[in-house]
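Pasting as-is:
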Amino acid sequence: MRRILRLMLTAAGPYAPQFRATLRISAVASLVQVTAYATFIPLLAELARDPVRTGRAWTWIAVLAVLVALESVLRVRETAFTYDHWHLVTRSTRLRLGHALRSMPQQELARRAAGDLTSVVGANAATAAAAISSLSTLFVRLVTVPVVLGLIVLVVNWRLGLVLVAVTAAALPFVRQVQQRSNTGFREVDEADAATAGRIVEYVQGLPVLKATGQAGSDSPRLAAVFAHQQRAQARANRSAAAPVAFAQLLVQLALVALVAVGAALVLDAQFSVPALVAVVVTAARFAEPLSTAAVMTKLFELSEASLSRVGEVLAVRPLPVSSGGSAPTAFDITFDSVTFAYDRQDEPTLTAVDLTVPARSLTALVGPSGSGKSTVTRLISRFADPQAGSVRIGGVDLSTLEPDEVLRHIAVVFQDVYLFDDTIRANIALARPGATDAEIEAAARAANVHEFVDRLPDRYETRVGETGSALSGGERQRISIARALLKDAPIVLLDEPTAALDTESEVVVQQAIDRLVAGRTVVVIAHRLSTVVGADQILVVDGGRITQRGTHRQLLTESDGRYARMWSAQAAARRWRVPAVGR
């Protein structure tokens, strides 16, 4: 539980002081509760006297009443954290997870499935908050009450106390087995749940493809396997701890039987009184109840630990380090100096000793085969990751000395695959600058050729675009993405072949918008169709993680045996390709 409490304090975050205070209140309330139980011993002793000392009996009844009332007050204060802070802890945990995801190195973020992260931010965060607000105080009660009651019984009669100690010691190994088995089982369950959530997200997003291939429906192999794995994991987790829980509960019940047997022997031997034995048995019953409950609740504690651990793992991921001495760039040329970069768990580097310079207010095109490292270059410019060797600089400032958010403040990105949120067109454009006025948003939309199709929509800029922009065409989505970049008005623009997936008519309109976007800015474009970058100030051919050629379109074509000339010839031949007629 020390481990779980540490995880709880991590998850509590800014509410850790209130959480500690609640634990202290719970401990005091439990001590008061134990003291109230202990008053039965002198109270029954007084009632068994002949004659009864009425004054003393009423005194003990008054003490019992005061202790019960005091415990009630403390329990109310204890539950205040649950009712007043549970939703705040949940919100705080999710916001901190969001910040952790935002500052997480991109390659670390990329290796985590969307469904896995959804599970952590959703179900795991809620379970962690529930554990902090409710299970923590329950644990304090389950530990404090039997320990103190056991000590009281030892003081009253050491023989009876030894019975409780012996049986408790015998039960602890079974409780430990429950912990170990549940810990392993519930971690497997949690991982299975995350895998299932990820596969469901994938299934929903890929439903058109699955329908077209006949793989949709309840027997879809994409879902059946993860559902079966999830069911097996849940069954194993439930079965694995069943026997230890039963044995632990049995031993606790046997403790009461043994206590009564030993107490009866002491009474028959005139070493103990009947009233005292009754009081001890009543006290021991309260001793046994938390232990029996603890045996059952151990599974719940371990389930909570699985969620707390997953939340803690995300919060523990360190953001990219920031070296001292950096300041915001005032110039916007880009320089790679002997940059070598490899992704995690990759044997060979993606980039090796790359040197390049992108002058300010120029257009540089990156071309080359798939997997050559072009996208990695743009990711390093955005400081989604840091190179293992060499440096990346903007305006002479080493990016390792800047916060990633500060780097991205100067960069606008237009991806080939546009992501729009299920919101209005206005809201999707305004993402680039939330404080922008309606006039500024509309100006960016006009420059990106968005206004011409928005003007035909019934709700104009208040039209919702649907999930991932499904209500719009590819060209319309791309124009909104460009409007977003125009509104940001960043001095550096990164383009990842933004017209590759468009039809000819849409490509013309989008290209006009891009021309307005890149004017007067430092531009790096990843190009697959070489015809789109013939006017670039410089073209860099990336092959095998190295810059193998550099120059203008005309210069590179003169190198007839070079990669660029071969790519140009291959694409020219492909443009003349036609689908052959098929005879009946």
